[in-house]
Specification:
By secondary structure, the chain is α/β, with parallel strands linked by helices. The protein has a single domain, classed as Ribonuclease Z/Hydroxyacylglutathione hydrolase-like (Metallo-beta-lactamase, Chain A, 4-Layer Sandwich). Helices cover about 30% and strands about 15% of the residues. It is built from 10 helices and 13 strands. Strands 1-2-3-4-5-6 form a 6-stranded mixed β-sheet, covered by helices on one side. A 5-stranded mixed β-sheet has the order 7-8-9-10-11, with helices on one face. The chain is globular, with a radius of gyration of 18 Å.
Length: about 325
């Protein structure tokens, strides 16, 4: 049973300014991050959903004018984190960095393991069978993150391998003030629930269940992140969590991960997907689900998301929340 840990209201931060030099933008259901160095240089972490390139470009221009980022850094390559990537790379002419185990999904060699719509219990989870699995082919634009944890063009940061949600998932830590950009290793909303996503109700959860293909690795990754004692946690989904509560909530999630975060049953609960540097090697068989329930949830979620997008289009896009 997945139960989120609800932080106090004072612990909930803002995407507008997460920490000095770090800004966030929500692209409907997934966040991207602008990380500045203080000398005018900056990097983008993740690339949001498809059709969000113009929004990301305008938002970045508010902070940096015409200066492009030094690089785009990926926590992983799922569709909601790379949707605008090709357009951004074409506009900015910059390199993309990801963990070596993510490269098969970014160079056209392999699809991701199938999502599991049987877990999570919400409309976004039920829709998971419709989500694209890739691969995206960036050719020689994408490069492996360097061994040892250094982050290209971001001195003072290090990357941490946090597999489970994907085999090559990484998180990023700014060591001087313990700002953690955790991607989908954890989430600060119940990402499976359309209602929670729309209202952004803050609660510390494990990774989005429907796309997590190795729960044992995910549990170990959360334990590693908890040991870092972060002062700020910013995730791919949900609002930032700040202050002492951030570390405390993460410790509690790590302690009770198998009870709070892992579904009772699901495709990858007992047996993980296996992947290597060439992509997916094997996946367990799917879990049977109730098809009508999934179809109804998918239809309802599609209508709500469509209307939300139409409403934003009519009002004009606001690039700062």
């Amino acid at each position: 049973m997945r139960v989120g840990i609800k932080p106090s209201e004072s612990a909930v931060g803002s995407l507008d300014v997460i920490a000095p030099g770090i800004f966030g933008l929500r692209t409907l259901i997934a966040n991207v991050f602008d990380v500045s160095n203080g000398d005018g240089s900056w990097s983008l972490i993740d690339a949001g959903l498809s059709y969000s390139a113009s929004r990301i470009l305008s938002w970045a221009a508010e902070h940096h004018g015409t200066r492009p980022p030094d690089a785009i850094l990926l926590t992983h390559g799922h569709f909601d984190h790379v949707g605008a990537l090709k357009e951004l790379v074409a506009s900015w002419n910059v390199p993309v960095y990801a963990h070596p185990l993510e490269l098969p999904y970014l160079t056209g060699r392999s699809e991701y393991p199938p999502p599991d719509p049987s877990v999570g219990g919400g409309a976004i989870a039920f829709l998971a069978g419709l989500y694209p699995r890739g691969p995206l082919d960036l050719g020689d634009r994408v490069r492996p993150l360097p061994a040892g944890g250094a982050v290209p063009n971001l001195p003072g940061w290090r990357w941490i391998h946090t597999p489970g949600h994907t085999a090559g998932h990484v998180s990023f830590l700014r060591e001087r003030d313990k700002v953690l950009i955790a991607g989908d290793a954890i989430s600060t909303t119940k990402q499976e629930s359309l209602f929670s996503v729309l209202v952004q109700r803050p609660e510390v959860n494990g990774p989005p269940a429907y796309y997590t293909s190795d729960w044992g690795a995910a549990a170990e990754s959360v334990r590693r992140l908890a040991e870092l004692e972060p002062a700020v946690i910013a995730c791919g989904h949900g609002m930032p969590i700040i202050g002492p509560e951030a570390a405390a909530d993460l410790r509690e999630l790590a302690r009770a991960f198998w009870d709070r975060a892992v579904p009772a049953r699901g495709r990858y609960v007992r047996r993980p997907a296996v992947a290597d540097e060439d992509g997916v090697v094997s996946v367990p068989p799917p879990v049977l689900t109730t098809a009508p329930r999934i179809v109804l949830a998918a239809a309802a979620a599609g209508v709500i998301l469509y209307r939300l997008n139409r409403r934003r289009s009519r009002r004009g896009v606001s690039y700062r929340r």
